[in-house]
């Protein structure tokens, strides 16, 4: 009996430590720094800072996701963004909390804040109590929602066209977006989509970069020698990070929040900061730099 009691106590202690770790990991938002090569675009766009956010999942109250969102907004603003893009699953839940609206309204950039909707935003989820996101709620916070649409903004004489494809679970219309492309030389074209596979429908050269989310980078991952197994989607073609497929450049972010369970394991949430470089291809790409935020918990 003593042996079994000790074993049960050890297992209980291990489970408690694992739970604390996974809660802390879900709050340890990191900053990832990347270069966005765009040779041939207008020189006025050199050094443009684009911050990529995704998957807040902050529609519940109380919500640890809201804590992570606050940290992500702080990191975003500290990066001095010229443009902010959000790739879906913002606030699906029974009711977006006032804290969510407050944090979303803090996001400001000279060229604007643009978003597309994800499957959770349409109420399409395995998670209970999910309700569709009203785009008007996002627009009221200063976020422009692109529903199979495109918008053009200017920095000096340089033009940036932001194209947004609605969620790829039946609401997407990539051909309608491609029909609106500004193909003039010098225009920086960016694609926003919740599901990365949608971006593969574009031709090489259509976009300097496509931004996606959805996978949470696995959210809870198993570390193995030389690789991580992402439990959120074992068969995902695009799990996380940067890809180049036949000339198509794509970045899939881990996102900010967690879904179903408030845990992450070996998969910290992230804010991705891109700096546009108009120089010819070559030179080093900054590593996915981690800036630890030593605040495992917070209040909103």
Give a brief rundown of this model.
It contains 5 helices and 14 strands.
Describe, in plain words, how this protein is organized in 3D.
The chain has one domain (2-277): 4-Layer Sandwich (Purple Acid Phosphatase, chain A, domain 2). The protein is 20% helix and 25% strand. The chain has helices at residues 2-27, 64-78, 98-106, 135-140, 174-178; strands at residues 30-37, 49-53, 83-87, 113-116, 143-145, 149-155, 158-164, 188-192, 209-212, 221-224, 227-230, 241-245, 248-252, 270-277. The strands form 3 sheets. A 6-stranded mixed beta sheet has the order 1-14-2-3-4-5. Strands 6-7-8-9-13-12 form a 6-stranded mixed beta sheet. It is globular, with a radius of gyration of 20 Å.
Counting structural domains, the number is 1
- How many helices? 5
CATH architecture: 4-Layer Sandwich
Q: What is the subunit organization of this protein?
A: single chain
Which characteristics define this entry?
20% helix; 300 residues; 5 helices; Purple Acid Phosphatase, chain A, domain 2; disordered C terminus; globular; six-stranded mixed β-sheet; alpha/beta
Topology:
Elements: H1 2-27, E1 30-37, E2 49-53, H2 64-78, E3 83-87, H3 98-106, E4 113-116, H4 135-140, E5 143-145, E6 149-155, E7 158-164, H5 174-178, E8 188-192, E9 209-212, E10 221-224, E11 227-230, E12 241-245, E13 248-252, E14 270-277
Parallel strand pairs: 1-14, 2-3, 3-4, 4-5, 7-8, 8-9, 9-13
Antiparallel strand pairs: 2-14, 6-7, 10-11, 12-13
Helix pairs in contact: 2-3
